[in-house]
Amino acid sequence: MSRGARRAGAGQGAAAAVQLLVSLSFLPRVVEVQVAGVLDDCLCDITSIDNFNTYKIFPKIKQLQERDYFRYYKVNLKRPCPFWAEDGHCSIKDCHVEPCPESKIPVGIKAGHSNKYLKVANNTKELQDCEQANKLGAINNTLSNQSKEAFIDWARYDDSQDHFCELDDERSPAAQYVDLLLNPERYTGYKGSSAWRVWNSIYEENCFKPRSVYRPLNPLAPSRGEDDGESFYTWLEGLCLEKRVFYKLISGLHASINLHLCANYLLEETWGTPSWGPNIKEFKRRFDPVETKGEGPRRLKNLYFLYLIELRALSKVAPYFERSIVDLYTGNTEDDADTKTLLLSIFQDTKSFPMHFDEKSMFAGNKKGAKSLKEEFRLHFKNISRIMDCVGCDKCRLWGKLQTQGLGTALKILFSEKEIQKLPENSPSKGFQLTRQEIVALLNAFGRLSTSIRELQNFKVLLQHSR
Fold it and tell me: What are the tens digits of pLDDT across the range 112-157?
């Protein structure tokens, strides 16, 4: 695979840059003011994270994501939702299974078997929205014959390695390699009740909380009362550290995903060519302190907290990759060596960060109680990863699965410190092993967080220019 191929999909163009500058100049100053200070549950401030990410991490992680080893992710997008019956891949209200022109609707439906779908076909605006959502949310499966041949070689190499952990369903016939550079995470039109149900299920059924305590969701959620937000956070502060951390990780992931969609929104489509850039109205709807009743800044702080957790995991797993036995194999010896050198450089940077989250403070109480809580923690997160199979947009499902697997891998690392310390130099260890997919997910998920924080940094700089 050529170096030129790695650059596919990179860059936004002059027009998008101008649009970015003009649009972001109207971002309210209050966002900049309130997303600052020291984070709860750790001794680290936001300014230090911004500077560290901007000058050390972001440029290198961006390069790494363009390397062949990290740009291809194998994923099964055809697994059925295990929790509820799917209502189709178009989530816009009353638009479900058949978001197509009437001429393409099956004969059975035309004959009156489903008046609901005929009604949708006659609603031009909703139909157009559904068609756009399906188009933008579709996966670009373009892969060269050279790439496909390489994947066979990669699988043969991976099979020759000793694995001591349960492999994901990447061996399923339905699993396929996806070029992440050809499928960037951005706005797809996936919204409404289907998207809300996914996040509502995550927060209301899988975070540690009694059903009587409601978390304030995004503006799409029905309001349950003016004091819901404060009563929720009063309750949250009374939880043990582990349960607070779990909530912040999920909230941070949610905030990061929303930031990517706001920063890469479909602004207009002229002559079939889409123009992508920041949507300030959407950003304010999700993060503005006034429009979110103070919830927005909390979400952004949780993004920083999640960044710290994954940063800590990278610093802890460095010894695993520093061994000579670990090879980031793609078949190109020179490129593989360059990729590993770049990865080790990133690890050195992560270890140099002076204000890491102290994971030793977690699960540190009574041994029996700590073990039980850790298992409960693991099962809650595993359940959330399964909910990603309920996402109705393929591209959203792709990035949701990748980022949850990346976070899951980070947690696996933080809970395996002793096993990592005992790793032999020239042979695999039964105590700790990472698959190719876990490695790809771990670094790409952290790359998404790094990009989110870089976007917020851009907002601050452009605000200063506008003043």
Answer: 333 333 344 445 655 666 666 667 777 877 766 666 566 566 565 4
pLDDT in tens, 353-391: 988 888 877 777 677 777 888 888 888 888 888 899 998
The phi and psi torsions of 243 (rounded to 5 degrees) equal -75, -35
Question: 109 or 275, which is more confident?
Answer: 275
What gap in Å lies between CA 60 and CA 66, rounded to an integer?
10
Binding residue ranges for FAD: 186, 188, 199, 251, 254, 286
Which residues are designated catalytic?
A: 393, 396
Binding site, annotated residues: 186, 188, 199, 251, 254, 286
| Dihedral sign, Cα of residue 208, residue 213, residue 216, residue 221 | positive
Q: How confident is the model at residue 17 (pLDDT cuts 50, 70, 90)?
A: very low
333: burial class by Cβ within 10 Å (0-12, 13-18, 19+)? exposed
Q: Which amino acid is at 99?
A: P
380 and 246 Cβ atoms separated by less than 8 Å:
yes
pLDDT, residue 270, reads: 62
Axis-axis angle for helices 436-466, 14-24 (nearest 10): 60
User: What pLDDT is stored for residue 89 in this prediction?
Assistant: 47
Question: Which residues pair with residue 176 across a beta bridge?
Answer: 75
How crowded is the C-beta side of 141, counted as CA atoms within 13 Å?
Answer: 7
Q: How many CB atoms lie within 10 A of CB 42?
A: 18
